[in-house]
Amino acid sequence: MIYLISGKQNILLKSQMETIVNKSLSKIDAMNFVRFDGYLTTVQEMVREANYLPLGYEHKAIVIENPYYLFKSKGRNKIESEQDYPVLNDYLSHPNEVCDFIFLVNTSDAEINKKSELYGLIEKNGQIIELKEPEKREWVEIVKQFFIREWPEVIIDSDAASELARRTEGDYASLLNNGNKLALYTKHITFDDVALLVTRPLEENAFLLYNYLMEEKNADAVSLFRDLKSNNVEPVTLISMISNQFRLLNRVSYLSSRRYDSESIAKELGINPIRAKIFRRNSFVISRKTIAKTLEELFQLDLKIKSGLVDRHYSFELFLINFKRR
């Protein structure tokens, strides 16, 4: 059987693949289970392996990770010139019945070309499994079920589960890591435990950093940055995210000067009404000239860091220390 499993989270792709393999294979070893990396192995090598009989077994499984040739943009790959796609097309048209041929496709950074001949053959002769991202309202329940299933002896308060759901943002790998960490820390997880042990989402930290600057809490901004640095967050990433905040502030400031209220700004820019209210309030304490000056400073800082002209951590910390609204 041919399978194409697609999704944005590797942990879900792996779980779905294991479900399929475990149904077909009672025992797994090197003779009946083979994994290939699409970046390193040609399609004809994979097909050759798929056509081999599973010695000592009735069934076998082949898993292909990173099948870049299924994407709309293949990018550059050193083995592309060696690929013999007609061989793969022929196999997909006439697959080995005793072999599960499984494509694992992470679509977090690329889109599958559903108009390609390869995709069409998989769709015709195999099974397409698209793993959907959990909706926000489902994620809290998934968090609760994680502890019931994996740590039945651990109690997690309702508000703690909601906060953990908010901080992990639908990321199963993050839930697994942070959930296990919390369960090992205490047998009764409270909101304060989650706040202490689980890092806020990066976007939220970037917004908090921006807010500290707007409130002229420069020392708090520096303290937050140092915490983020210990978690290996790069200054250029924060520069990009903070620049986006100031660009939005510039647009809000302009609309506010045209007598738009918060609700109208939210509708015009397609942003959350609460966020529009915060940014409109900020626009009264900083001039558009200062916003433009700040954006230029951030652009130059980003350029100097990427050119290796300044120390990235020291220079960004200096920016946070010296920032003034006026």
Summarize the structure.
The protein is α/β, with parallel strands linked by helices and 326 residues long. It contains 15 helices and seven strands.
Q: Would you kindly provide a written description of the structure presented here, covering whatever features stand out?
A:
This protein has 326 residues and is α/β, with parallel strands linked by helices. The chain has three domains: 2-130, P-loop containing nucleotide triphosphate hydrolases (Rossmann fold, 3-Layer(aba) Sandwich); 136-197, Helicase, Ruva Protein, domain 3, CATH 1.10.8; 202-322, Up-down Bundle (Zinc Finger, Delta Prime, domain 3). The chain is 57% helix and 10% strand. The protein has helices at residues 10-24, 43-51, 85-93, 117-125, 136-150, 158-168, 172-185, 191-197, 202-214, 218-230, 235-257, 262-269, 273-282, 288-306, 312-322; strands at residues 2-7, 33-37, 60-65, 99-106, 127-130, 155-156, 188-189. The N and C termini lie far apart (66 Å).
